[in-house]
Batch of 4 targets.
Target 1
Amino acid sequence: MKLNQEEQTLLLQIARQSLENAVLGKPLPELDLAQLPPSLVELGASFITLTIDGRLRGCIGTLEANHPLARDVQVHAVAAGLKDYRFEEVQDAELPLIKIEISVLTTPSPLDYDHPQDLVAKLKPCIDGVILQDGLKKATFLPQVWDKLPNPEVFLYHLCQKMGAEGDVWRKKLLKVFVYQVLEFQE
C-alpha cells in the first residue's frame, strides 16, 4: 500500500484528534468518509504505537482489514491510549509528550517452511512483520521490532513468549507462520 504525504498527514491528524478527544472524555471526531481520499476509505489494517521519549506507551491494532483505513486508525489510536492492558490509561498531561506512529499493514501471507533453520533462513529482518500461531495461541511483532531484536532466533524466542508459549517452541514443532509488511510513518 502506498500513501502520499498528504494522506499520511491526514491519518496522523485523525489519530491525534481521536486520542486527545478520548482522553479528555469528548466525543470522537466525525469522519466524513465521502470527503476523504479513496485510499483512506478502502478497507485497511493498522497498528497505532504511542511512545514517550522513545519508550512504548501503548500499541494496539489489527491484522485484518475490516474497516475503512481512516476508521481503523481512529479506533486503534483510542485503544492504544486507553485499552492497552500493559499500561494505565493515557492522562491528559501526557498528551503533549506522546508521539504517534502508524503502521499500515499488507495482507498477511503464509510462510511455508520445513524445519526451524529453514524458518530462520526465510525471514526477512527489518522487512517482515511476523505472526506465529500455535492452535488458539497467536502473536505478532511488527517489522520495527527487528530494530530491538535483530537476531532471528532471539526474535522468534520473544515472539513465542508473547504468544504465551515457551520461547523455544518454534524449534520443537512446526507453527503456522505468516508474514506481512508495513508502511510506517510518525509525527
Target 2
Amino acid sequence: MFTLILSRVLFLGLFLLAVYAVQRFWFLRAWSWVGTFSNANWRLGFHAVLIALAGALLATVLYPLFGHGISRLSVGSLNLGKTLATFSRLWLFASFFGFLAVESVGALECVTNIAARLLHHPGAVAGGFSPSRRTFFQYAAALAGGFPFLAATYGFAAGRLRFTVEHVDVPVANLPPQLDGLRIAQLSDIHIGDYMPPREIARAVDMANGLHPDISFVTGDFISGEGDPLDACITELSRLRAPLGVWGCNGNHEIYAGVEDDAERLFREKGMRLLRANSAVVEHNGGRFNLIGVDYQRDHMTSGEPAGPMLHEIEHLIRRDMPNVLLSHNPNSFHRAADLGIELSLAGHTHGGQVKFEIVDHSISPARLISPFVAGLYHLPMKMNGGSVQKAALYVNRGLGTLGFPVRLGVPPEITLLTLRRA
C-alpha cells in the first residue's frame, strides 16, 4: 500500500511539474511580448491582465479542492465559474500540445543549423545561422503552436457532441442458432454534467431506440462526481426501449461518488435492472444466454492490497450450458473473463482516449496509459471444458461524455449496435 501511495504522489508531482513548465513557457513569452509595447500604461495594464489570468487558471486547476465552488460563481445570468472552468480546461489541453509543437519546431531548427554549419551551407553566416531560415522557422512555430488551439476549439464546439452509430458484428463462441442476429444497443460513460446536459442524453437515447435493438446495455459512469444529477441521467436512460429490457452496471465514478446503491435503486424504480455481482438468464427466440454484471473492477487504481483476482465474486455465476455475456465497465477485466470462459464482455471506461493521432499508420491515444483495450472489438483465447480453445470477445465503447478536458478529436462519442453472430 505504501508503494501505491508513493506512486500516486509521484505521478501527481510529475503532472503538476509538467503543468508548471508548460504554463511558465507561455507566460514568459506573453510577458516578454507585452514588454515590447511602447506605451507604459498599456504595458502595465496587459501585465496586470496576465497576472489575473494566471491566478484564475491556478484557481480552476485546484478548484476540486474547494468543493467545485468556483463552478457555481455567477454574474447575473452568466455562469462565470463554468465559463472560467471551460476556458481553463481548453487552455490547459491546447497549451500542452502547443508547447510540444513549438518545441519540436525549435528542435528541428537547431538540427538544421548544426547541419548547415557542418556542411558549410553558402546561405549561412557564422555559426550556421541563416536569417531566411530563421524567419521560416518563426512562421512554422507560430503555425504549429496555433494549430492545437484551433483543434481544441473544434473538439469542444463540435467533436464532443458529434454522436456516431457504430454497427459491429460480433462472433460469439457457443452461440445457439436462435441467438444468431440478436441486436444489442450499448451506451457507456454518460458523465452527465455541465458538458453533457440531459437534452444531449435524450438525443443519444432516441438514436439508440431508432436502431430497434432486442436488448439495451449501459456500461457505467452515469456521472463524473459527487453532486452530479444521477437521477436526471437515469431518468433519460429509462426512455431506452428494447423487448428484452434495459440492463446496466456501475462504473468507477459511481463508486468514487458513493452512489452505487442509489444507481441500483433508481434503475429498479425506472423499470430497468443494474447488475452488481449477479446474473440473469435472458431468453430470445428459444435460445438463452447468461447475463452477468459487476461493479467497477479495480486494478492499478485500488487503494490497498487486492482481495483477490478480478471477477472473483462472479466465478460461481458462470454457466457452461449457455453463453455468458459480461457487463464490466473496466475493459482490463477481459483477461480474467477469458480465463473464466466468458464468451462476450462489454465495457467502456477509456472514452477511446478522447483524442487520437494517426502517425505513420499508428494510432496514438492517451487511453493506452490505462488499458491495452482502447476502443472497438478485441479477442483473446478462451479455454473450454475438454481442452478445446475458442475465442472470447470484448467490445469497448468509446462513451458519450468527456472527463477532464471537454474535447474529442478523432474519437467521436459512440452509440453501438452489436449484432451477435455464431463463431
Target 3
Amino acid sequence: MTIDAHQHFWQFDPVRDAWITDDMTNIRRDFLPADLEPVLAQNGIDGCVAVQASQTEAETEFLVSMARIYDIVKGVVGWVDLQSPALHDRLTHFAQYPKIKGYRHIAQTEPADFLTRPAVMAGIRMLAEFGLTYDVLIYPTQLKAALHLVRAVPEVNFVIDHLAKPDIKKQDISRWSNFMAALARQPNVCCKLSGLVTEADWQHWSKRDFFPYLDVVFDHFGPDRLLFGSDWPVCLVAADYTQVKTLIEEYVQPWGEEVRAKVFGGNAVAFYDL
C-alpha cells in the first residue's frame, strides 16, 4: 500500500484559517477528499493520513467524518486539548473511532518551551495508554524542547513533521542538523519527508536545494523511519502534488525499490498501524 502520510482537508474559514495569508491565494478555498482522490490516483498513491489543521475537537470529528465516507483516508491525526484535566475522558470518547491514529498540536505557534511544560508532557504521555502517536510540528528554534520531550516520554512514538521546518530558503543547516541527529538517536522518533517546498523560495526552488537536508535525515534516521508526506494542499503555494512526490522519488531512487516501498507506504503503515 502506497501512503501519503501527511495532508489536510478543510472548509475554508477566513477567520479560523487566518494562517492562510494573502500570498497563499490559491489555497484560500475548500479542500476535501473528493478533490484529493483523483490526485492520488494520478500519482499512484492508495491512501493518505489526514492531519489536523485547527485546534478544536470539531476538527477531529470533521476528519473522522471524512475518513468514514472516503476510503482513501486510512488514518487521522486529530487534535485534543493535551493540557485538559478531562483529557483521559476525551481520549476515551475518541477511542470509538479506530481511524484516529494519533494527535497533534500546532506547537510551532507556541513559545519555545511549550513541549516541555509538565501538563503538555503528561498529556502526551497519556497517549501511550491508548496506543496513539504524536506528530511534532515545530520550528528549528524548538528542537531542543522536542529532544527533551522524546527522551522524557519514551513510551510514545513520535514523528517529526516537515523535517522540523529547516530554513531551506536561507540554506541554514548546521544547528538544525545537529538536533536532528540527536532526535534520530531516540528509537521512538520517526520523521516525515514533507513540507519541504514551502520552506524554500516558492517561485525559484530547485530539487538540489533539498538534497542536503534529505542527506541529513537519511544518514541519521535511515530508510526505516522516514515517511513520505505531500503536505497537500499547503504544498500548492510552491509546487503541485506530482512535483512534490517526484522530488522524493528521485532522491530515493538510488536506494532501490525496497527503500522506496518503505518511504512511500510501508513505514507509514507501521508507524500509524494503518
Target 4
Amino acid sequence: MMHLFMRKGPWFRAKSHGFGTGLPMVWEGWFFIALHVAMITGLAAALLGRPVAMTIAVIVAGLAPMPIYRAKTEGGWRWR
C-alpha cells in the first residue's frame, strides 16, 4: 500500500538561486512538508517545560528529513 504514495520522480523543484530545495511540485511534497512541520510543532509542544531538551529535539527533527528532501529534489542540491 505504501508504494502507492511513493512517487518515483522528484517531489520538489530545485531552487532557482542558492542551495537546497524549492517549493513542492506534487502532493507528496506538500504532505511531507506538512508532516515535517507537525513533527516539529508536536515535539516543541510536548517538551514545552524543558527548554534544553526541546531545543535539541527540534534541531534533530528539523535536520532528520534532509536526506529525503535532497533525494526528492529535481536535479539534486547544488549551488545555482
